[in-house]
Amino acid sequence: MPSTNRYPLEIVDYVCDPRTGLARRLKWLPTLAEIAEACDQRADYAKSIAHLRQIAKQKRATIADPIASDSAKAAAQNWLDNCKTLKQIGE
Questions:
Q1: Whole-model pTM?
Q2: Is-contact 2 35, C-beta < 8 A?
Q3: How far is CA 4 from CA 37, 52, 72, in A?
C-alpha cells in the first residue's frame, strides 16, 4: 500500500487539493495506485523545476562573472530568455 508520508507535504497537498489535484480530474474517488502515481508525477515535476532553478542560478552567475567571456554571457542570457518554464513559475 502506498504511503503519502514519503512525499513532502506540499506534494500531498497539491495532489489532494480539489482545486489542483486528483479530485479535479477524476469522476470517482482515486485508488491508492492513482494517488501514488499522482504524487510521483508531482515529485518528478518538482525535481525538474528545482533542477531548472539551479541551472538558472548558474547562468545568472555566468552573466555576473567579470571574467566570463562575452560569448558565454550571451549564451547564458539566451538560455534564460528562452526558458519559458522559468517564466511560468515566476523565476
A1: 0.75
A2: yes
A3: 11, 25, 43
How far from 18 is each of 13, 24, 30, 52, 81, CA to CA, in Å?
A: 10, 5, 12, 28, 34
Number of domains forming the structure of the chain: 1
Residue 90, pLDDT score: 59
Model pLDDT, residue 1 = 45
Q: What's the Cα-to-Cα distance from 61 to each of 12, 42, 46, rounded to whole Å?
A: 33, 29, 23
Of 1, 32, 2, 39, residue with least CA distance to 17: 39
| Cell, residue 53 | 532553478
Domain residues for 67? 4-88
Cell numbers at 8, concatenated = 513532502
Report the run of H or E that residue 62 belongs to, with start and end.
Answer: helix 32-64
Nearest to 79 by CA among 61, 49, 55: 55
